[in-house]
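Section 3.1: Structural characterization of target chains.
Under the original work plan, the team committed to producing a structural model for every single-chain target entering the pipeline before any wet-lab resources were allocated. The record below documents one such target. The sequence was received from the expression subgroup and is listed exactly as submitted; it comprises 352 residues.
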Amino acid sequence: MADDVTEPKIRIRNLYKIFGEDPAAALAQVQAGASKAELLETSNHVLGLRDINLDIPAHGLQVIMGLSGSGKSTLIRHFNRLIDPTAGEILVDGEDVMAMNDTALRDLRRFKMSMVFQKFGLLPHRTVQQNVEYGVHIQGLSDDEAQRRAARWIERVGLAGFEQHYPGQLSGGMQQRVGLARALATDADILLMDEAFSALDPLIRTDMQTVLLDLQAELQKTIVFITHDLDEALRIGDSIAILRDGEVVQAGDPQAIIMDPADAYITDFIKDINRAKVIRIRSIMVPGPGGGQGAPVRTSQTIEEILGVLHDSPDGVCPVIDKAGKTVGTISMNAVIGALESRKTAEVARYS
């Protein structure tokens, strides 16, 4: 099952988390329909998660996002049982994490899941080399193997030459590269990243996103990435789940969320994005044998990237090709205009 990409790598079923003195009793209120505010007022319990159901496929980058207090960091900490749920189940490669004994849980954390934190979590008294080696030593591997893996990943994240520096001698972006190298050195299947780039300056943050995407293209890990930044989510995510007050409001292909928001909350959430920069041609093309007099454009390109080509097309239409160069559809200037105007249409419908 672990090697079958059709099976979810991580499966979350009917997951609830309630914080307080008697969460089991509060659970009945939540399942009866009590809101987060009502639960706090009537029982002084805090609703962290409500009935989360989410399948995370292998080898993809799953983004979980929401505003502060939405439950996204609480959720990711359930995957390796840093937090135990009030109810529900978490399956990793088909194994019930809640049924694991202490030994199995330690092995899960040592060998199958690595975590990258917002605050870096580096050991200040250890060098870059020693910090990256740390997780490998925890796995019980030899000093030679730890040194070999650390050297490889230090180079891969662009820190060659800084092996003997201490965290306090590095910039924030460089420290986060150390944290990423440490996680990758364990060779874990699953990488958990909790607001990993949110403490970085915008330019450094974009640089780290590029590093992550380049590594993922090669490594094909299963990555769960927590963020509150929609632009970041749209740039890196293969799939996005948006939380509000501990519930999944909408989940799926980022393009589908942009083109068909589930409700007014999601509409508000995405209203300020630059649609030309994030809507990809695969989302708005007409599938088929292709046509038009313009030069071919790719399914993965954004509206912004193909506007010039469409403008130069004598009939305002271009064929669309996939990664292999096969023609899979047609894109027209009218389709582009419609996609850019759909936000206004949605807003008019909402307030009419």
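Residues 255 and 283 are 6 Å apart (CA to CA).
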